[in-house]
Automatic annotation (TrEMBL):
<protein>
    <recommendedName>
        <fullName>AP2/ERF domain-containing protein</fullName>
    </recommendedName>
</protein>
<dbReference type="InterPro" id="IPR036955">
    <property type="entry name" value="AP2/ERF_dom_sf"/>
</dbReference>
<dbReference type="GO" id="GO:0003700">
    <property type="term" value="F:DNA-binding transcription factor activity"/>
</dbReference>
<dbReference type="InterPro" id="IPR016177">
    <property type="entry name" value="DNA-bd_dom_sf"/>
</dbReference>
<keyword id="KW-0238">DNA-binding</keyword>
<dbReference type="Pfam" id="PF00847">
    <property type="entry name" value="AP2"/>
</dbReference>
<dbReference type="GO" id="GO:0045893">
    <property type="term" value="P:positive regulation of DNA-templated transcription"/>
</dbReference>
<keyword id="KW-0346">Stress response</keyword>
<feature type="domain" description="AP2/ERF">
    <location>
        <begin position="18"/>
        <end position="79"/>
    </location>
</feature>
<dbReference type="InterPro" id="IPR001471">
    <property type="entry name" value="AP2/ERF_dom"/>
</dbReference>
<dbReference type="GO" id="GO:0005634">
    <property type="term" value="C:nucleus"/>
</dbReference>
<keyword id="KW-0539">Nucleus</keyword>
<dbReference type="GO" id="GO:0006950">
    <property type="term" value="P:response to stress"/>
</dbReference>
<keyword id="KW-0805">Transcription regulation</keyword>
<comment type="similarity">
    <text>Belongs to the AP2/ERF transcription factor family. ERF subfamily.</text>
</comment>
<dbReference type="GO" id="GO:0000976">
    <property type="term" value="F:transcription cis-regulatory region binding"/>
</dbReference>
<keyword id="KW-0804">Transcription</keyword>
Length: 196
């Protein structure tokens, strides 16, 4: 339960944060409501713990009443949020209680997905590093040494050494590749194929 706010806190807190159909109640929760089309009444959707969830409830009710294209000055609070999938012929048959229940469920389900806290960042692990020094195999006892050398050899693309490549190097290489004409690309492919 959210504790009631003091009079000073209520006067300082914004009433709706610029979100349509959302206002703050005196006890700290956020209310969502919408005008019913072709009527002089409002549909009370419910109260929610945060303003974004209440705004999602308003968006869902707006979609239930008007579809993807709300008329006039009405607009979605989150135009790029996922929308409900309700056929037009079913949407026209919804009662006010259906709209309220759909909007409340949508707000809680989608809000818990869209506005969940981000997980803590994982530590960065270098992927590409400099190549290891070549391993020299003496002529005596070459078979046993060859197995050890193969196991000790490091793939130049996947090693644990630090990478000294800077962003400027990567951008310069990309610029060189993107500025090549077709003849230069064909010559480069020929060089790569010769090396294989």
């Amino acid at each position: 339960m959210v504790p009631p706010l003091s009079d000073a806190m209520v006067q300082q807190a914004p009433k709706n944060l610029g979100l349509r159909g959302v206002r703050r109640r005196l006890w700290g929760r956020w209310a969502a409501e919408i005008r019913v089309p072709r009527a002089r009444s409002r549909l009370w959707i419910g109260t929610f713990p945060c303003p974004r969830t209440a705004a999602l409830a308003y968006d869902a009710a707006l979609f239930c009443f008007h579809g993807n294209n709300p008329p006039g000055h009405r607009a979605f609070n989150f135009p790029f949020a996922p929308r409900l999938y309700i056929d037009d012929h079913r949407r026209y048959g919804l009662t006010l209680n259906n709209v309220r229940a759909i909007a409340e469920r949508y707000a809680l389900d989608v809000g818990s997905f869209l506005f969940r806290p981000l997980p803590p960042a994982a530590p960065l692990v270098p992927v590409f590093t400099a190549a290891a020094a070549p391993v020299v195999v003496p002529a005596a006892n070459a078979a046993a040494t060859m197995v050890a050398a193969t196991a000790a050899a490091v793939d130049p693309y996947y090693s644990n050494e630090a990478d000294n490549t800077t962003d400027e190097d990567v951008i310069a290489a990309a610029d060189r590749l993107l500025s090549m004409d077709i003849d230069e690309v064909a010559a480069l492919i020929g060089i790569v194929q010769q090396g294989e």
